[in-house]
Design brief:
Chain C: Keywords: Cell membrane, Membrane, Peptide transport, Protein transport, Transmembrane, Transmembrane helix, Transport. The complex is a heterotrimer of chains A (312), B (352) and C (344). Chain A is mainly α and 312 residues long. In chain A, 76% of the residues lie in helices and 0% in strands. Chain B has 2 domains: 34-53 and 81-233, P-loop containing nucleotide triphosphate hydrolases (Rossmann fold); 245-349, no CATH class. The chains are: A mainly alpha (312), B alpha/beta (352), C mainly alpha (344). The interface between A and C is large, with 47 and 40 residues.
């Protein structure tokens, strides 16, 4: 199988997944209990009839499904009936910035810190440093990020008053605490992953050969080890993203950040179906695209896979 | 006696394991002269690899060197710091490993891996190291090595990889090359090629050749040390070991080698299993597998008895009080051949 | 060498006789008793202090949680508004925050006196806004959280093992087909499925368990499939197949016992993640509904007033963290002890 064919195949899967998700969300949207309108009890039957016509809710399900799919293809996500009757796409696009910024910052910080922690752990396996680093990784993995977020808020905002307690109005300073709260999970994951990989690499025959060449321990870990340990790390970017998405729901709420996650929770609580479905789709698209990128990256970085593809 | 290049004195190495302490090397003394090839022969667990790893300072974390000295050009390697050992490894003493399939970093180009010791020890520039790497690869017989510098290990065959590992070991022109079963993982035809390569090297560097196969030794080595249960049981020049062996274990090894003129076609196998070094029985560890064991073997470990100025063997059969035993036929034939050669030599000398 | 020769002269001459073969046979010791894979694993696990301590902590927590069905200090849902928002009071404890005093406008005030709580009535962990006893609620909440996690893990186990076994054992086209389905499902974020499930069904233990089980089995299925593929090639399985043992019998007698290690390890990782998800869902307000307590709902309630009544948030948070850390440490310990790949 050539690399190109491999990518095509992945794309096909991606479309299948997205089709599946959009169909499920549509079905759910139609069979969900509760009303799509605000203050439904105040509407007269005539008003409701008018509203239904206006939003196309009077048409049969099959037709609405086709309309919905073609709308999706054009980037039309429907209208949020709970938040000022504005198009969902507009509502979400105004909120995507903070979420992306936070997500990227947290992923970067988490992975880099995790790599350092994991590498040091592996280099001094079973020593005091290793126990300490491994333990902090386990604690980082165990404490739910919303508890950690509240703890950060309490210490750095309430008690020490170093950083703003919440909101998104103080530039970079207001991103620090939410980034930290989000970064703890990817850090713990990366640290554990890198430690395991690195121990395997450091016990490998080629690490021994490097030692026999006269390389120092530190350089073996960083020159020979890290590259080999980092390649598999790419595979956990997918799960990491999912973790960040989940985390963003609570962390954005706790820090009152105008992001997608905060909107999602608001929409869930108020039965804002169009927005719920749209965020669901958005998250799925994001995950599917990231899985695809990871597959491609893996092929590009690992010479064994890359060249095997190119040769044939 | 002049100073040897490498002088291992009474080396004792033990390993801490879950089950207890394993005494893997018990009082090994060896010398390696300049330009000499020494073969270390023995079954797995006999301590031959551990001995060499002690020289390289590559023992695993659970190993302790209980006792002994390893003198390299007169200075004790065991007393050196990590930093000092790093300067010796790969430069003065280098090593070839058993499994070429896993010994190379899969994500680094061959060029970089061969150049690594040059950059490290000789402080070569990137381009100079690359040029040198190319020459080294040609030396070990990797064809069209210019192009291949940018290739990755998985693009080479097992035999080629072992050549690359050899090139890495030779990069800085080491005084001593330790080859740890370099042919075990390879096909027979490839084995021969690697042995040929090592044979060519013996003029430029001293080699310690570890193997469990006495057969490959005859062509390559000047001297042979046979190890059993963490001790050297017989050591001598290659002719002495092959044609005048004294230790019953060496007899066993020789008898279990397939030869072309084997009439009955049946191979000899040494009975029993390797000794338990965790809780060794008193006396000679080989005694339980030894058809020629004496009662004394159950109580005392034999010292190394001198056979000739270059030949020693640790068996009570060499003690004056030991009864003379009937040597196996194959061994007797070898000894006879040896004596004929000896007398032939003296006769020749007499003529001169 | 002559020195060596001299030093052996004291050995009696009689020793230099061919050895009696029985004597030497006696000396050949029987091999050390061989240790089975699981015994070996246990021994390694026992050396891991953190894992052993975690195991004990979890046993105690599970015991207390089960006991809370019959015994809690008070009824966890009993409201007693006059005693609302009391801080913890542990008799004999003289540390502010644990002695019935709470900080009001930078001063420590005895809340029990203010609320005119009769002498001899203690709320060890304080009370919430409705005067419910927090200790009782934490005990009941822990039980609910653990129940949800264990049930979800159990469903995971059943679906995941069945799917993985069939996919790996059947192989060929079945395997390819089942793996494609798995890949498509894996593209759907767990969070989304869980939230959609909770929107359709009424929030409660059952819907949370179903939602978690529906999304959690993927990893188990993958792990079991990979291991099954590996085991399938083992000689003893091949031997059983050539002897005509039925697939079902091979699965029960050979595969499941050999898979049990990784299944246990995987389950140990599933449980804390289910606990986390329950707490997470309840925290954002779509999990368990009031008045039933789970650790998540307690955190949700506690968070609303954490600056003024910190105990309502930190006590359930501490219990949750303790459970999570213990499970993760134990799971790590089990994996290191039983995963042959990690053996060095």
């Amino acid at each position: 199988m050539t690399f190109f064919k491999f990518i095509l195949k992945r794309l096909a899967f991606m479309l299948a997944t997205l089709f599946l998700i959009s169909t499920i969300t549509f079905l759910l949207m139609n069979f969900l209990p509760g009303s799509p309108y605000q203050n439904e009890e105040k509407l007269t039957p005539v008003q409701r009839q008018m509203m239904n016509e206006k939003y196309g809710l009077d048409k049969p399900a099959g037709e609405r499904y086709l309309i919905y799919l073609s709308g999706l293809a054009k980037g039309d996500l429907g209208i949020s009936l709970q938040f000022g009757n504005q198009p969902v796409s507009k509502l979400l696009s105004s909120r995507i910035g903070p979420s992306i910024q936070l997500g990227l910052q947290a992923m970067l910080l988490g992975t880099v810190a995790g790599i350092i922690l994991g590498t040091i752990s592996a280099m001094y396996q079973n020593s005091f440093i290793d126990t300490f680093a491994s333990l902090s990784a386990i604690i980082g993995r165990s404490i739910p990020n919303f508890i950690f977020a509240v703890l950060l808020q309490l210490v750095f905002a309430v008690s020490l008053k170093w950083l703003p307690i919440a909101l998104w109005d103080d530039g970079f300073r207001s991103t620090i605490l939410p980034t930290l709260a989000l970064a703890i999970a990817p850090m713990a994951d990366a640290a554990r992953f890198i430690r395991t990989e690195m121990i395997e690499v450091l016990n490998s025959d080629y690490a021994e050969l490097a030692k026999a060449k006269g390389q120092s321990k530190v350089r073996i870990a960083f020159v020979h080890g890290l590259r080999n340990a980092l390649i598999p790390l790419i595979t956990i970017i997918g799960p990491m993203t999912v973790g960040l998405m989940t985390g963003s729901l609570v962390v954005e709420n706790i820090f009152a950040i105008p992001g997608i996650g905060e909107q999602f929770v608001k929409s869930i609580v108020t039965n804002d179906y169009a927005t719920i479905m749209s965020v669901t789709l958005l998250y799925s698209v994001l995950l599917v695209v990231i899985i695809l990128i990871v597959d491609i990256l893996y092929g590009l970085i690992d010479p064994r896979i890359r060249l095997a593809g190119a040769k044939q | 006696m002049s100073e040897s290049l490498l002088d291992i004195r009474n080396l004792n190495v033990s390993f801490q394991t879950f089950a207890g302490t394993v005494n893997a090397v018990r009082g090994v003394s060896l010398t390696l002269e300049k330009g000499e090839t020494l073969a270390l022969v023995g079954e797995s667990g006999s301590g031959k690899s551990v001995t060499c790893r002690s020289v390289m300072g590559l023992l695993s974390k659970n190993a302790t060197i209980e006792q002994g000295e390893i003198l390299f050009r007169g200075s004790n390697l065991l007393a050196k710091s990590d930093k000092e050992m790093q300067r010796i490894r790969g430069k003065e003493i280098s090593m070839i490993f058993q499994n070429p399939m896993t010994a190379l970093n899969p994500t680094m180009t061959i060029g970089k891996q061969v150049a690594e010791p040059l950059r490290l020890h000789q402080k070569f520039s990137r381009t100079a190291a690359r040029r040198q790497a190319q020459e080294l690869l040609e030396l070990v017989g990797i064809p069209s090595s210019t192009k291949r510098l940018n290739d990755y290990p998985h693009q080479f065959s097992g035999g080629q990889r072992q050549r690359i590992v050899t090139a890495i070991a030779l990069a800085c022109g080491p005084e001593i090359l330790i080859a740890d079963e370099p042919t075990t993982a390879l096909d027979v035809t490839i084995q021969a090629q690697i042995l040929e390569l090592l044979k060519e090297l013996r003029h430029t560097t001293s080699i310690i050749f570890i193997t469990h196969d006495l057969g490959v030794v005859a062509n390559v080595a000047d001297r042979v040390a046979v190890m059993y249960g963490g001790r050297i049981v017989e050591i001598g020049k290659v002719e002495e070991i092959f044609y005048n062996p004294q230790h019953p274990y060496t007899w066993g090894l020789l008898r279990s080698m397939p030869t072309l003129d084997d009439k009955d076609g049946e191979l000899y196998a040494i009975p029993g299993s390797p000794p338990d070094l965790l809780s060794p029985a008193p006396g000679d560890l080989f005694a339980t597998r030894n058809e020629y064991a004496l009662q004394v073997d159950a109580h005392y470990e034999p010292p190394l008895f001198q056979v000739s100025p270059t030949h020693y063997a640790a068996t009570w059969l060499l003690d004056d009080r030991a009864p003379s035993v009937i040597v196996p036929e194959a061994i007797a034939a070898r000894r006879q051949y040896y004596r004929q050669r000896q007398t032939g030599l003296t006769a020749k000398e007499g003529l001169l | 060498m002559s020195e060596a020769k001299r030093s052996v002269l004291h050995i009696p001459d009689a020793y230099f006789e061919p050895a009696d073969s029985n004597l030497l046979a006696k000396q050949e010791r029987t091999a050390r008793p061989s240790i089975s894979f699981y015994q070996d694993g246990w021994r390694r696990l026992k050396k891991n202090k953190a894992a052993v301590i975690s195991l004990y902590i979890l046993i105690v927590i599970v015991f207390i949680a089960v006991a809370s069905i019959w015994f809690t200090p008070r009824d966890p849902n009993l409201q007693h508004v006059p005693h609302a928002n009391l801080p913890p009071l542990i008799p004999g404890m003289d540390i502010n925050g644990w002695n019935g005093y709470a900080k009001v406008a930078d001063k420590w005030v005895n809340k029990y006196e203010q609320a005119q709580v009769p002498e001899g009535v203690y709320y060890y962990f304080g009370t919430d806004a409705f005067g419910r006893d927090l200790l009782s609620r934490i005990l009941a909440g822990t039980r609910v959280s653990l129940l949800i996690a264990v049930l979800a893990a159990l469903f995971d186990l059943l679906i995941g093992i069945a799917y993985g076994l069939i996919s790996g054992w059947k192989g060929g086209k079945t395997d390819i087909f089942m793996q494609r389905i798995l890949e498509i499902i894996a593209g759907v974020p767990t969070l989304v499925v869980v939230i959609l499930m909770l929107l359709i069904f009424k929030p409660g233990i059952v819907s949370i368990v179903v939602a978690l089980a529906l999304t959690g089995w993927l990893t188990m299925a993958r792990v079991v499939r990979a291991q099954t593929l590996k085991l399938k090639e083992q000689e003893y399985i091949l031997a059983a197949r050539t002897l005509g043992v039925s697939s079902w019998n091979i699965a029960i007698k050979h595969l499941i016992p050999n898979l049990s290690g990784i299944i246990i390890i995987q389950t140990m990782f599933t449980i804390p993640s289910a606990i986390f998800f329950e707490a997470f869902l309840s925290f954002i307000g779509i999990g368990m509904r009031a008045p039933d307590a789970s650790l998540g709902t307690l955190l949700n309630e506690g968070y609303k007033t954490f600056r003024f009544l910190p105990h309502l948030m930190w006590l359930p948070a501490a219990v949750l963290c303790l459970i999570m850390i213990s499970f993760n440490l134990l799971a790590d310990g089990l994996r290191d002890a039983f995963d042959p790949k990690m053996k060095n």
